[in-house]
Amino acid sequence: MHIEAELDDIHAERLNILLERLQKPLSEVLATAIDAALAKPLTQQEEDVEASPFYQALDAIGFIGCIETDEQLSSTYKEKLDFSIGKL
Predict the structure, then answer these.
(1) 79, 68 in Cβ contact below 8 A?
(2) Out of 26, 42, 43, 58, which could bridge 63 as a Cys pair, Cβ 3.0 to 4.6 Å?
(3) For the segment 31-65, what is each residue's pLDDT rounded down to a tens digit?
């Protein structure tokens, strides 16, 4: 199969790093990456997304959270949430 792709600068650099580390041709590096992605259970992939640095940073500053409330939160959120910290 012939694949043509354009990568952003970050992923292009990461691919170059993999090529250097593995000392293999591009086709073998991509095959290894595909095999590794498919070998990981879906639940593990979901956990990886949840544990991403971006998620962790948002969680650390309190941007992500949850509350137990009724299902009418879309219309009663002002009564349920404390906005004294800042404005939305």
Answers:
(1) no
(2) 58
(3) 988 888 887 666 555 555 556 777 778 777 777 66
Look-up: residue for tokens 């170059």?
Answer: 16
CA-based end-to-end distance of the chain: 50
What residues contact 64, with CB distance under 8 A and at least 6 apart? 55, 58
Q: Where are the domains of the chain?
A: 1-39, 42-88
Whether the Cβ atoms of residue 21 and residue 13 lie closer than 8 Å to each other: no
Residues 50, 56: Cα–Cα separation, whole Å? 8
Alpha carbons 85 and 77: distance in angstroms, whole number: 15
